[in-house]
Amino acid sequence: MSVQGLIRMGDNTLVLGQRVSEWCGHAPALEEDIALANTALDLIGQTQLWLGLAAEREGKGRTADTLAYHRDAWDFRNLLVVEQPNRDFGVTMMRQFLFDAWHLEALKALTEHEDAEIAAIAQKSVKEVTYHRERSSDTVIALGDGTEESHERMQAALDRLWPYVGEMFSTDEDDLMDVSALRPAFDAYLETVLAEATLSRPDSDFAHMGGKTGARHTEHLGHMLATMQVLPRSHPDATW
Amino acid sequence: MKQEWPLWEVFIRGQHGLSHRHVGSLHAADAEHAIQNARDVYTRRKEGVSIWVVPAADITASSPDDKGSLYDPADDKVYRHPTFFDIPDDVGAM
Known about the structure:
Radius of gyration of chain A: 17 Å
Number of domains of chain B: 1
CATH architecture of chain A: Up-down Bundle
CATH topology of chain B: Ubiquitin-like (UB roll)
Order of helices and strands of chain A: HHHHHHHHH
Distance between the termini of chain B: 55 Å
Radius of gyration of chain B: 20 Å
CATH class of chain A: Mainly Alpha
Oligomer: heterodimer
Order of helices and strands of chain B: EEHEH
Strand order of the largest sheet of chain B: 2-1-3
CATH class of chain B: Alpha Beta
Number of domains of chain A: 1
Structural class of chain A: mainly alpha
Distance between the termini of chain A: 35 Å
Helix content of chain B: 10-25%
């Protein structure tokens, strides 16, 4: 059944949206700050659609909000890459780029999904994510092929995040589609951007697993959720 | 080394507008980046259908000190306004 698959999509956008929003007021330039906030809001908007549909299909009276705010880390089904901390701007943008490159291929495939509601969410999201990928790719290229220091930081960011790429293409019956089929398109796009950015793809194919199955999240997710969930958990019936 | 990105002036053509209008300025590393930033800073509420960006340094502006010689001579030349023509009713609203 696709409820787990829907939760996976929604948890990816929720966790990354929360992470990106942590930059609000702290980005290195005002324009980047606004752009990151826009990206975060796009992702949270997509979360409402995915988790809203998941809750509806589940039929247990939960909503997108209960799924977002009243589950603990072990119930989250996001990819490990999106829960990784922001660190510096280079790591943030590299994480964004790697996720966007996967996300856009996944959404394009889902626009053809036999379930009309899933296809509709994918169609709406694909326009936003096309822009996310354009922006993060340009930043990776600009910083990768920038100064000596920016190049080193971007290569270090890629090396740090690379072990989280493999999980994006691991698949099982809970997925909305066979995500392993997305790898060739991802690799081709990655290769063109990394070449322009003068960055080298790490050799190792070692991959950390356990985010999308919930078996083993990294220690970072719980800390992030504590911040994200504290208000609705302290005041469960609060309304605006 | 200069730390700030160069300044760009942003012009947006709105949904129903025929011309691009100046909406503000922003900093960006190059023209493409300026377009992206303009998209994020100035079109969040569907303000536009087209964006122009121009390096602020490339704009030549008139000096406020020349106000007198540039604009005042037009004060007493009302005949330059096309309000002295009778417009046939058939033309409709202009």
